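Appendix B, example 12.
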Amino acid sequence: MAGRPNKQGNEQGHMLSRRSVAPSPDGDTVARQEHRLAGMLSVAPDAIVAVDAGSKIRVFNTGAESLFGYRAGDVMGQPLDLLLPDRFQTSHAEHMARFRSGSSQSKLMTERSEVYGMRADGSEFLAEASVFKLDLDGEVVLTAMLHDVTARKQAEAELIAAKEQAETALIQAEKMAALGTLASGIGHEINNPLYAILGAAEAIRDGDDLAKGQEHAADIIGYCKHVAEIIKNLAGYSQPAEKHGLEPVNVNAALTEALSMAQLSLRADTIGIRQRLSATATISAKFEDIQQAFFNVIRNALQAMGREGTLRIESADQGEHVLIRISDTGSGIAPGDMVKIFDPFFTTKGPEEGEGIGLFVVRQIIKKYGGSIDYESAEGEGTTCSITFPIQGQDEEDT
């Protein structure tokens, strides 16, 4: 029964049974000790519940009344199972029996697992509990001190959710910022095949050679497929990645698409590209996330070189990981800036080239999938970014 504790219930709940205390020639002293103990239990902020050898409730203080919603007088002498969800009763009884017969005098139950209790209204709650063993005249009494952690657990879950939401928003913001610089490059890239399509169509219209017409038609089909691929990559990049589940991701494919988009973004036709993609294993991730991480790193490398230089992209399987290296021959990173490159909103670029969240986003994505990222750089000599990911099936519990 739930309800406000009455005076009689409090007295029954806060007093230890005199039958379990050995007779003493100094009965007044024992009575005073029991009275003092009852007073301490009554004002304790946490719930205190004690059970005898038969797992019957012997002590049920004010904190326990508040936590469980029972009056002390209604639960005294009742089985401890009254306070436990059905699914935990058997395992809890076994644990208490082992503790009762063991040599340990106390046990922090939070070291074992979370403890679930059940209120009078049938609702459950999480608690941290410490259990103590007391021998009273040959009878082992177990006393538990419980602290409700439901609110704390909920706050922790809300904090984690808010953090994930903020990270997702930053990732999406970086995508949209990159799309701004990508737009002009895509316009240039699409215009070329459009002009070719127009020319081929006019040749078909004005010509009467069927074989030549078929060649022009094949060209049109190829150019249309090229434009469709550009649009597909753009659409895949711009949409929020959280709409997709984890999948096997080929890092070489992600690198290739990221490089293509970065070249469109900066129109880096004069930069030499050297690729050695030998990785064969896949990683477990969201393709759009991995593509975005590679795109940001490659874009930074191209920006560091301006109109001249060489970009090297390598991938290889290394034991349980895939290694990706992206190197440039650009201006390098100053030693004082190396410790800040992953800080949000830190940038050495002009206002037209970024907001300083690119590498912060990259590191968040890589950490999300159990990977690592490291930079090596020398001023005037270039920069190398090394990224690793666990191969699919390795360390997936960390992703």
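The domain at 158-185+243-398 is CATH 3.30.565.10 (Heat Shock Protein 90). Confidence is low (pLDDT under 50) at residues 1-27, 395-399.
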